[in-house]
Structures are given as structure tokens and as C-alpha cells.
Amino acid sequence: MRTGDFDFQLPTQLVAQRPARERDESRLLALRRADGGVSHHNFRDLPRFLRAGDLLVINDSKVIAARLRGRNHRSGGEFEVLLLEENARNDWWVMLRPGKRARLQTRIDFTTHAGAPSAVSATVIDVNDEGHRRIAFDGCGNILDELASLGEVPLPPYIKRESPNDSPEDIERYQTIYAHAPGSVAAPTAGLHFTPAVMGALRRMGVQICNVTLHVGLGTFAPVKTDDLAQHVMHEERFIVPESTAERVNAAKTEGRRVIAVGTTSVRVLESAVVGRGSRRAETSSSITARQEPRPTDDPDFRIAPGHGRTRIFIHPPYRFRVVDALLTNFHLPRSPLLMLVSAFAAPGETRGRELILSAYEQAIAQRYRFFSYGDAMLIL
């Protein structure tokens, strides 16, 4: 398939600039895979679609205040820095703008939210083939401890704010209520709709809830730049599958109960953590590659293994899902890996899921649904 197959036109006014007044006031579009039927609901209606014994898998990664601002120590020119991945304490790969002015050994002095000088600085020590910079921080014990005063909420560029992005609303709402493990540079947005009331209602009706962790980075939100999907290689992202989660997922699959993923990040963890029946842990020494061919879903020997890993898995049609039976997600950008993943899920093992998703998107646009990170939700059953 081609990247251009996943394009669509979206009126700019449907790109959500603010979250819904209350998290669970978002709208919910339900798509039935069996017949392509679409129905329209409120997110508070989610319990109507679930049943006792279902296993809901959430991503508990926490967004860090990953956007920093600084000045060139020599020239005074301004830089914007987005933390991408920690190599070691105070050693990070970053996206840096303007990159052309950040040559090796460039020193950056960081400023506070108010634009005042801080004691924290960094030096560019490496550049990779994609133009990302590796920087070494100094003037602090750990840059993660300084983000409260230096960092901003890393809102995506289609959400327009006056700089800096440190409004109380965004600090609270660009984070799930169950966020626990710091490390993401973008929110796992499907989880933003949940409230304690919705979670409580699901638990009371017998839905089990468990967590995985995938720290959202470029692998999730970087655009596909190749025309041929087979040539696109995802960036690695770190994931964790707790022992208790692996046990619950394996029990649900054995007993024929549904596994429902909250968000594409949870899907990518679950599909990456599949191993043979005799394996004890998820892959940790090597990454799952973008071109990995999964076992068929009727293979009796697969299971989910606990452990830490790094994944490059790129899910697009046709993909044979092994674990996930239903998916709660948001509405995604054109030509994005996320749109390709949900298209694969709409018709597992086939290519017609693209048509099902784009048709549902057309109906969502006609019904004035709100799109992207702060937008409405979609449930694919």
C-alpha cells in the first residue's frame, strides 16, 4: 500500500484546540467491523459496549514537560529543544530548532518559563542522520528534576498556544488521570477521556483493568515520509509489560474473553510482546522490527510475556492481530502511522480497513466531531 492511500481532507476548524469541558463529555463514534456500521454516542456511554470479563489495557506513561527554550551561549540566538530519549542521566537525544545553528560543541543556556536565565546549560555532542542532536546537560543533578521550572507541556504543533505552553489547563488535561511512569513526549490521547466515574462504572460491571507502559516518542507521531509503506522504519520506543498484566492477558485469551486496548500505544505494546509458548520474557536484547511477520491469530502457541523491551513495530494493512479484540482510539492525522494502524485493525489481515476507516471519518466530519489529541474518541469493535 502507498502512503497517499491514507490521505483525507479535514476542515481546520475541526482540529480541537481545547479539551472538552469535562473529560468524559467527549463524543464517541462506534464502528462495527463486521458490517462497517457506525453509531454516535457520548464517551460516558462506553460501559454500554463492554461486558463483564472484558480486559481493558491502558498505557500508564506520563507526559514530561519536554519542551525547553534556551539561547546560544555565544550569539544569543534562540533555540527550542524537545527532549526525545534519555541515554543516561543528563544525556539526551533531542529535536532542536533551528537545527542548522546547533553545530557540534554549541552551548545552550536554558531559560525559565518567565524567560529568565537559569543555571542549566547543555552542549551539543552528536548529530544523527535524521538531524537530531545529542546534548549533555550540566548545571543540574538531573534535568528531569528541573522540568517544573524550565519545561513546557509538549503540545503538538497543530494546537496553537502563546508560548510558553504552561497553562494550568494543559498541564492537567494533556495527561491521563492514571498517568504514572514519566517518559512520554506526547500524550497517549485515547486515555484522556477517562474519568474516575467512568473507570468506577467499568469496574463495578466486572471489567478488568490492567496497565502497560509505552513511552510515546517519535515512533508514534513521526510522519511517514516514504511513499511505499514497506520502506518506512519506525523509531524505537521503550515499553514495559508487568507480570500481572501478562498473566491477565494470557488468561483472557485462553478463556475467550475480549482484550480491549486503550490507544494505539497499548496495541503496539501487546503486539510487540507476543512470544512463543516456551519463552519466559518479552524481547529485551533486540528490537521488534517494522517488518516483523506475526503469527496468525489462531496459532495456539503464542502468549504475552512480561518484561522490558524496545519496539519498532509498524502496523498497517494487512496485519493479522494476535491479541487485541477491540480498540478505543482518537481521530488521527492524514498519512500518519496511527491512521494506518487503525485501518489495519478495522479489517485484520485485509486491506479494506482503509475504506472502512476513511468512510467513518467522513461521517465524523459531517457530524462535526473534533479531531486529534484534544478531540473526540472512536471505538472499533
Furnish the topology, listing elements before pairings.
Blueprint: E1 27-31, E2 38-42, E3 55-59, E4 61-63, E5 67-72, E6 78-88, E7 91-97, E8 107-111, E9 117-127, E10 133-138, H1 147-150, H2 168-173, E11 181-184, H3 196-204, E12 208-214, H4 218-221, E13 237-241, H5 243-255, E14 259-262, H6 264-272, E15 274-276, E16 302-304, E17 307-311, E18 326-330, H7 337-346, H8 353-366, E19 377-380
Parallel strand pairs: 1-19, 3-12, 3-14, 4-11, 14-18
Antiparallel strand pairs: 1-2, 5-6, 5-8, 6-7, 7-10, 8-9, 9-10, 12-13, 13-17, 15-16, 18-19
Helix pairs in contact: 7-8
Task: Describe the fold and architecture.
The chain contains 8 helices and 19 strands. It is an alpha+beta fold. The chain folds into 2 domains: 266 residues, QueA-like, CATH 3.40.1780.10; 84 residues, Thrombin, subunit H (Beta Barrel). Helix 7 crosses helix 8. The radius of gyration is 21 Å and the shape is globular.
